[in-house]
Structure formats: C-alpha cells, structure tokens
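Hi everyone, sorry if this is the wrong subforum. Our group has a chain we'd like a structural model of before ordering constructs, and none of us has done structure prediction before. Sequence below.
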Amino acid sequence: MGGAFDVIVVGGGHNGLVAAAYLAGGGLKTLVVERRQVLGGACVTEELLPGYRFSTASYVCSLLRPEIVRDLRLNRHGLEILPCSTSFTPFPDGRSLLLGLGGDEDARRIARLSRRDAEAYPRFNSALARMADVVRPTLAMTPPDPSSLRVGDLLDLMQLGRRFRKLPRADQALLIKTMTMSCAGLLDEWFESPELKATLAATGTIGTYGSPRTPGTAFVFLHYYLGEANGAPGAWGFVRGGMGGIAQAVADAARAAGTVIRVGAPVERILVEDGAATGVVLESGEEIRGRLVVSNADPKRTFLKMIGPSDIPPEFVRGIENIRCTGNSAKINLALSEPPDFRALPGDGPHLRGSIQVCGADPAYLEEAFDDFRSGRPSRRPYLDMVIPSTVDDTLAPAGHHVMSISMKFIPYRPTEGDWRTRREELGDLALDTLAEYASNIRRAVIYRQVLTPLCFEEVYGLTGGNICHGDMALDQLFAMRPLWGWARYRTPVRNLYMCGAGTHPGGGVMGAPGRNAAREILKDLRRGRAGRS
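Answer:
Right subforum, don't worry. Here is the predicted structure as tokens:
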C-alpha cells in the first residue's frame, strides 16, 4: 500500500467517499477501507437478479448538496438525476390524489377534497420554501462549540439571524413553532382534508422514533424539504443506474484526486496510542497506519465497538450509549413482470413515475401503525412508500419489466414475538397483502423479492439499530447536539480521530454534507497544526 497514509477513512458510504475526495483534493494521501464488496453504504445499486438492478436501501435523491456536485464535477463522472416529480396516493375507497402535474392541476385535484385546501396548498409550499431558505445554509455550517464561541461561529449565527429577521413575522412565528411542534399539528393549522394531511404527514417520521403527532416531527418534515433536484428546491429525483450512481460518481472523483479505495476490508478496531488515533486494524489482522483516521460509521459503532472504553472519557461513552438510534423501517425490493395496476387510477401514467404511498385516508392510519410499532409488533396496516424507478430509467430492468422499491413503516427493530431471522418473509407478505388492496395484479406480477428488516439494515449495511440516519433526527439530536453537545464539530475526544457520517451534523439522507463539512474542518486543523501530530 505504499506505507502509511495521511488519512484513513473508515467506511465507503457516500459521506466517507465525499470526505475522501475533498481530503485527497487537498493534497493528502488518502485511503478508504470499506467492509462490503460494494461502495456506497446504504446508497448502492445491486443486481440481485440478472438484468434487474435495485437501489436496495436508499431509493430517491434530493438532499445531495449542489456544491458537492459542482466541486467534485460529479456530472463529468456520470451522475445523472432523472425527474421524480409526482406524488400519488390511492385511498381505500377507490379515490386518489395525484400531485406534481403543475400548480393549476394540483389545485384542481385538491379541490375535489377541499376547496379551502386547494387555496392553502400553494401558500403552504411557499411558506415552507421561505423557511427552507433560512435553514438551508446550516447544512454547510460547522455547528458552534457552546463552550467557546469563536468569531467565525458568531458571524455564521449572526448571518442566520439576519436571514431570520428578513422573514415576514408570520413566517418567523411559523419557523419557531416548526422547531418543536408535531408534523400533524403543523398540517392541522393549514388544511382540513384528512386525505391531504395523510398524504403529507409521514415525511415527518423519516429516521426518527415517533408518529406524526410526536413533537418535533414538524422540523423533520422541513428537513426533507431542504433538498433539490436539478436545481429545483424541494424536488426529488431518481439517479440513472440506481442510487449507487451517486457513490460511483463520488468514488471516481476521489480516485481522480488520488484516493486509494479498498473494498472487502472490514475494520475491526481503530488504533489509539497515547490518546491519538494512529491507524486501523482490519478483521484480517492487517494493520494500516495513518496520521489521521476519519470514521464514516455511526457513533455507536465507532465508539462502542471500534475503540476501547479506556481510550475515551466515561462521560463521552455514556453520551454515545444514550443516543437514540432505533430504526422503524423495512425495505421490500421487487422485480415485476408488469407494473402495478391501481384500482384508483388504472393503467400507465405519470402516477407510476414518482412516489406512491399507501397511508390510508386519514392521519389516524399512521397513528394506529405507530401504536403497533410501539408495542413491538409490525404495523398491521403499514405505511408503504413506493417508487418504480424503471418507469423513467430503462437501464434497471428488461424491456416491459420493472423494479419496485417499497419502504415499509412502522417496523420494530426487535419484535416482541420471535425474531426477524425467522419472521422476515412475513414482512414481504404483509407488504404485498397491503398493496394488493389497491393494485390487485401485484402478486402475479412479482417474479423476485428481497426483504430487508431493521436487523438487516444493521447487519448488512452497518446501521446500528437499523436506523437509516445513524441516530434519530430529533431536535435534541441535531445541529450542536449531533452526535453530542460539545462534540458536534466532527472532532472527537481522541486526537486525530474525526467523524464524517450521518451521525454528525446535518444528519441523515443522501446529502454528502457531513463528509464535506468534516473534510473542511480536518484541512483547517492541519493548516493550523492542530492535527496529524502523535
């Protein structure tokens, strides 16, 4: 391997690859070691059946930061985002709501449910957009150190304050409320139609423990509005070739900058000598030395499994142990001989080319699903969030056939009865039984299925507790408190050890911001002589 490295990045997920690309671009001899044979972490494309390529874990793109696309020239490395512009919700009684066909058409369709809501919907989206404009700059910020506010931190916070003051007073009040209120409460203030509220409410529960009525889920809802696709704020997209196209483009950019990438190289532990990280030991026993180590693993895996407790302060260990990190999702990947034929909107059409969700016709559906989850059993009537990316990307399946992703909530990490190793296929049956109530042809269309439980997310993708965001996206675990109060600046109590994954600010989603932010802080420390010394 040519001797010791300047930087060893533990984990080839997209954030680790982003960090490596920036660090190598800064002139550092950089190595990425990835435990699996495929790069990307949960942002991967895998050919599970010959000719069928699946985004097995993450499945849509929005949060990927445009500055990363620009800086790393990802479009030159093959990244292409395709539109995922519609949202289709079939209701149990045979009606449906299809949004995303344009403002006038959205208003017409919502008016079938409520004329008042049709008028409120564009105002709601405009208010979200204004709030997102205030919050979005925080994605590129390093959170301030509460024990020692530096001039740069104060200037960043003052700039955010100026953005906030420019908002209309009503938006100021709304943003403050959004920080703590529930997603359902937010929607109740704007809309009267239970069907529209059901369509929107589940976004507030992504990557966190809670139902739409849980305080703080309104901010989670806003978090997922911060992204963009092809320059359109709040938009979503598919990646040509599957989500692994992001990881491959970033990996190509990292290699072009000089990064060495090794797959099939699981790290057993991070070497710590005299309070400083000095390298890693692979499960094979191979020892690799480096001036700096950067972990893309989640905080619990990093500090509770890869580092001995004697190497970090006990209060820090306690804080890491107390991070809430409970997943609530399963994933069903299907190969189909034909697309689902929805009773509410039969045949082909734009409703198959965006997101599709089964969420009942009232937010109470999601509350009941969460109640099942909270009691330790999979939801009897689960929420299904689905996409059929092969309807817009013909590279994913043979002609006339399709691949379909189903994210199913609310599914407990540990069921109270049995375990997921023996009950896994029950989740696949539950998903298909639920979907068949809306699209009766689905069972005959399935020619292959893969079922991933929360336990699979942990064992296959390294996500502790099956949490796709490396820790709940709750207000007390965000910004200056992610992963812990006083340790949100990508540095750790171990000298020369940094964090760059979704367990750091700004959190989960395929955005790359944690990796970019961490690399910036590392390069800054090296320039100031604060890193790289044993």
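For your construct planning: The radius of gyration is 23 Å. The mean pLDDT is 94.
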